[in-house]
């Protein structure tokens, strides 16, 4: 990718961010993003392929560093489940403390929840890395149980902080105490597996 292409992509991302934060992503057209960036009407599609591609790239740019910074504080393979859950929940809790953070997390939830992750990007806020580390920390669970519990944990956290059904995500709102969310997710992840329950049968 040439320097010119990189610069143009950044102009579009900057324009989209400004408009999304001002008006809410649902109220902003691609035409408006292109115009705000001073580019032709097809610029977003040329550089990002679609509206979803633009949104995913913006979220990766804005939120990816937040998660990377948190995960660098979490120990490697020796991390406990509680430490891993903290690395999942606490970045969300910090972000929603600001108006701009609430808008971006809302956009993340609306974009990522249908598929369980952002489309076409490799970011720390996809379930895969978390799932691998949870599996190592909870060897008594089957891979299927680990995958299902991690998917539930991600959905719960994004619904809690992203409020994907509200219309005005920028408004100040009251979120559960971070310790409460961590404790709830931790309890779900560490509950006994089906194989550990007397008389339990495996789902097929």
Describe the structure in your own words.
The N and C termini lie far apart (47 Å). The longest helix has 23 residues, at 51-73. The protein has 2 domains: 1-49, Homeodomain-like (Arc Repressor Mutant, subunit A); 60-192. It is elongated. The chain has 9 helices and no strands. The protein has 204 residues and is mainly alpha-helical.
Summarize the structure.
This protein is mainly alpha-helical. The chain has helices spanning 3-23, 30-36, 43-48, 51-73, 81-95, 99-112, 127-137, 143-162, 178-190.
Largest sheet composition? none
Whole-number total of structural domains: 2
Total helix count? Answer: 9
Structural class: mainly alpha
Determine the fraction of residues in helical runs and give it as a percent range: 55-70%
Strand content: under 5%
The averaged pLDDT comes out at: 86
Low-confidence stretches: 200-204
Alpha carbon gap, first and last residue: 47 Å
Q: Say how many strands there are.
A: 0
Shape: elongated
Which structural traits does this protein have?
204 residues, mainly alpha, Arc Repressor Mutant, subunit A, 2 domains, elongated, disordered C terminus
């Amino acid at each position: 990718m040439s320097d010119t292409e990189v610069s143009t992509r950044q102009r579009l991302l900057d324009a989209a961010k400004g408009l999304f934060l001002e008006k809410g992503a649902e109220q902003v057209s691609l035409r408006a993003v292109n115009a705000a960036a001073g580019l032709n009407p097809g610029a977003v599609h040329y550089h990002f392929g679609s509206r979803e591609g633009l949104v995913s790239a913006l979220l990766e740019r804005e939120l990816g560093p937040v998660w990377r910074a948190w995960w660098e504080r979490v120990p490697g393979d020796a991390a406990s489940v509680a430490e891993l859950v903290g690395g999942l929940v606490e970045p969300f809790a910090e972000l929603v403390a600001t108006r701009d953070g609430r808008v971006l997390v809302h956009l993340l939830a609306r974009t990522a929840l249908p598929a369980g992750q952002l489309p076409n990007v490799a970011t720390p806020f996809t379930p895969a890395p978390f799932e691998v580390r949870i599996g190592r920390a909870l060897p008594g669970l089957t891979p299927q149980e680990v995958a299902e519990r991690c998917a539930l944990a991600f959905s719960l956290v994004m619904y809690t902080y992203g409020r994907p059904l509200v219309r005005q995500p920028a408004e100040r709102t009251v979120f559960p105490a971070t310790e409460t969310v961590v404790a709830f997710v931790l309890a779900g992840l560490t509950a006994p597996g089906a194989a550990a329950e007397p008389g339990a049968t495996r789902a097929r």
